Amino acid sequence: MNNPFLSIIVPVYKAEKYLSRCIDSILAQSYKNFELILVDDGSPDNSSLICDEYVCKDSRVRVIHKENEGVGVARNTGLEHAFGQWILFIDSDDYINQGYFEKGVYEITCNKGLDCVIFPNAKDNVETRASVVIDNIVAEDCLLNSEQMFHLTELFEWSSCIYSKFYKKELLDSHSIRFANTPVYEDVLFNMTYFMYVNKIQYINKCFYHYMIYPSVPSLTRSMKKPNDIMVTSNTFLILFEKLKGKSWLTKNDKQSMQCRFFKVSSWGIRGIYQLGKTYSERKKASSSFIPVLNAFVLPIFSKLWLRKIFLTSRMLPFAVKDFVLLKMSRENE
User: pLDDT, tens digit, for every residue of 47-62?
Assistant: First the structure.
């Protein structure tokens, strides 16, 4: 594989201000053997027109126009239309430095049997102009396997980002790895599933990807609209964690790390049920369906029954009191 074909997938939604910078940084790469798949996720601004303009300018650019279904579905759409042997994901408001593709391809051709190439990336705050390099796992370039990846760093530090990674398309397809249709954490779920099947990873300690932070602008890719969104995310995590628990090399600390993260997700989920549930019946239904998730993964963290009660009470009591008052008022008005 001396000249591998790459598929660059860019989901596009409300990106008219930044899209040209993103696309230009991709098309300017010194390595030319790639296709750029722009997935217009029903964007209501001029992003769609910008995509069409680039299709006319460069034969490597393709655009897929679809109705808005979220970033996970958009990326999956790109995957289904990709012809590349290797997949890269870039967000429409981010950009990459020159030499990114060339360096990744060089590692692929020099190291037979690679399943993934990983780079750190820069998190750039537009308002403060501060830039912080993240996902710099180790100080030097090195070859890793999935077990070493899990043990080198905190489990979710490296798995929370799909940028700055070269994914093997054959591996994605053979294990049917796609993005879960969840409002948040879809990237974590994708990565953790993928790394369950990899054997050989090349880490390169050089930053090419710029992940742009716009503090005053709401997230373009995440939206929580109803309590069920939280349930879908939490239950998908639970299924994945159960699979990971079966790995023989997974240590006690790894399992505790997973439980701690799920503890955080569940705590956030309980709050979300009450913040997003507009009616008492909505909240009651979501809360009751959340109990099996808590019993399976969160509550075992607390060895003592009284600790479990404190956890649930501290998270749910303020909302439960509010519901009690609202329920009483509704009955008085009947």
Answer: 999 999 999 999 999 9
Distance CA 169, CA 101 (A): 16
φ/ψ of 129, rounded to 5, equals 65, 20
pLDDT band at 222 (very low <50, low <70, confident <90, very high): very low
Q: Are residues 75 and 203 in the same domain?
A: yes
Among 213, 235, 268, residue at a domain's last position? 213
> Do 259 and 197 reside in the same domain of the chain?
no
The pLDDT of residue 71: 92
Task: Measure the CA–CA gap between 276 and 1, rounded to whole angstroms.
Answer: 50
Query: What are the DSSP calls for 276-295, one per residue?
Result: H--SHHHHHHHHHHHHHHII
The pTM of the full predicted model, rounded to 2 decimals, is 0.80
What is the reported pLDDT for 220? 41
Total number of domains in the chain: 2
Residue 220: inside a domain: no
Looking at residue 221, what is its pLDDT? 42
Q: Tell me: pLDDT of 308 over 50.
A: no
Beta carbons within 10 angstroms of residue 239's beta carbon: 11
pLDDT value at position 3? 92
Full residue range of the structural domain in which residue 98 is found: 6-213
CA distance to 61, 196, 210, 221, 298, per residue, from 218 (Å)? 28, 32, 18, 9, 30
Strands (E), 98-224: 116-118, 121-125, 131-134, 142-144, 165-168, 201-203, 209-213
Say if residue 121 is in the same domain as residue 38: yes
Amino acid 261: pLDDT: 62
Measured from the Cβ of residue 149, the count of other Cβ atoms closer than 10 Å reads 19
How many of the other CB atoms lie within 10 Å of CB of 13?
21
Do 160 and 292 share a domain, yes or no?
Answer: no
Pairwise pLDDT comparison (169 vs 147), residue with the higher score: 169
Q: Minimal CA–CA distance to 67: which of 85, 44, 45?
A: 44
Under a CB-based contact definition with an 8 Å cutoff, are residues 15 and 33 in contact?
A: no
Number of Cβ atoms within 10 Å of the Cβ of 166: 25
Domain co-membership, 152 together with 199: yes
